Amino acid sequence: MTGSKRFDNYIGGEWVTATEYSTNINPSDLSDVIGEYAKADVAQVQTAIDAARAAFPAWSTSGIQARSDALDKVGSEILVRKQELGTLLAREEGKTLPEAIGEVSRAGNIFKFFAGECLRLSGDYLPSVRPGVHVEVTREALGVVGLITPWNFPIAIPAWKIAPALAYGNCVVFKPADLVPGCAWALAEIIARAGFPAGVFNLVMGSGRVVGDAIVNSPKVDGISFTGSVSVGRQIAISCVSRQAKVQLEMGGKNPQVILDDADLKQAVELAVQSAFYSTGQRCTASSRLIVTAGIHDKFVEAMAERMRSIKVGHALQAGIDIGPVVSRAQLDQDLGYIDIARNEGARLVAGGSLVTCDTEGYFLAPALFADSTADMRISREEVFGPVANIIKVADYEAALAMANDTEFGLSAGIATTSLKYANHFKRHSQAGMVMVNLPTAGVDYHVPFGGRKGSSYGSREQGRYAQEFYTVVKTSYIGS
């Protein structure tokens, strides 16, 4: 590890060294050290919060053109450097290079979208019920916001939090996942050169127990936007509500993909493979429950097993690879643990589920598919967050809908069918925040709202114009003649 480049935190407009650094390792090649990244302590977090608080009055009332120009500059540089940044993302997180470049492009487009949103802020001018009085309804920046992001989308999720926060006049204290600091640092370095005043944007890397807790519990932070695990999200909600800070949470999913008898079999298989296994299954919108009606069930299981034999697992930067490595040893152990649990519960392993040997040492796992599973199995109830899926056989559409909704989560849900009747009914009655008809459950646009129901999400939606609901507060002003 000696000789690796060190990457510092960005606080108050300056790059700040730390007393401790963590090593960022490529999960496709454990000998590849990406760099050593600063781990902030509590004092540095407080300095970052203070810098954001000091910058807020001027930034929140600054000209919207300057904000728009800075955000557009960030987006443009990301897009110009998408190959380079995509390679970095593939190295540190394990997405295949095409997926990684796609994620980087999405991040660039998010910044450019919100550059436009700066110029599209709107309100209402209304007559009062009292003669001679008018009412203005406007939106103002929330304040200092703490943004805590996960490891599975190391540039897109930071982008869809940071860009709207800055667009609406907030100041940011950003903590990326400790496992993938490389993309976060690269994004921070671009932001640092884009023309934002000192203190408007701050990067503090490090562990959730130290950095995350300090941000969440600070009385100087007006809101927290968090994407991550259910257990951590619920604790953040408790902390924020107790001090009346605004909170936005995106957490887990156990997403269903329904396959009806009338579905196009080839299409259904392809969307199920993409939903369940692409990005190594490491996305909250992945479908790990494949709910299949009786008439197509046996043909679907056979076709899925055949399709999975052609999936290529390997180094994320290697051409022709469909699925890269699992992100870490701990995540791999969790995936393997759930494969054992499924076997022990009586599910039948149809394909995959074994370690894959490649030219480099990494965390390679062949995607696992189980059949003959039931709704009460842990594999059907708990989020694995890996390339592990199970098929549940049901009698008909009504049983499929009931099974799809039989979960504590409600992020994304899909249906494969050629019936307009069933498609429309499923859209209306699915208890999910996002519904896909004849499309993979994973894969959403950057300009429309993202979020779920039940245990998956809490607070207002992310992305698109709906982002203003979290990052702004409404003011009502009365004007007499």
As a whole number of angstroms, the C-alpha radius of gyration is 23 Å
Strand content: 15-25%
**How many strands?**
23
Spatial arrangement of strands, main beta sheet = 15-16-17-14-13-19-20
**Average pLDDT reading:** 97
Can you walk through the features of this model?
This protein is an alpha/beta fold and 481 residues long. It has two domains: 6-251 and 456-480, Aldehyde Dehydrogenase, Chain A, domain 1 (3-Layer(aba) Sandwich); 255-437, Aldehyde Dehydrogenase, Chain A, domain 2. The protein is built from 15 helices and 23 strands. The protein has helices at residues 42-60, 64-80, 82-93, 97-117, 156-167, 181-192, 208-216, 230-242, 265-277, 294-308, 329-345, 378-381, 397-405, 420-429, 468-471; strands at 6-7, 9-11, 14-16, 21-26, 29-38, 124-127, 133-141, 144-148, 171-175, 201-203, 223-227, 246-250, 255-259, 287-293, 348-351, 368-371, 388-394, 409-410, 412-416, 434-437, 453-454, 457-458, 472-480. The strands form six sheets. It has a seven-stranded mixed beta sheet, with helices on both faces. The protein has a six-stranded mixed beta sheet with strand order 10-9-8-11-12-22, sandwiched between helices. The chain has a three-stranded mixed beta sheet with strand order 1-5-4, covered by helices on one side. Helix 1 (42-60) runs parallel beside helix 7 (208-216), helix 4 runs parallel beside helix 5 and helix 9 crosses helix 10 (294-308). The mean pLDDT is 97.
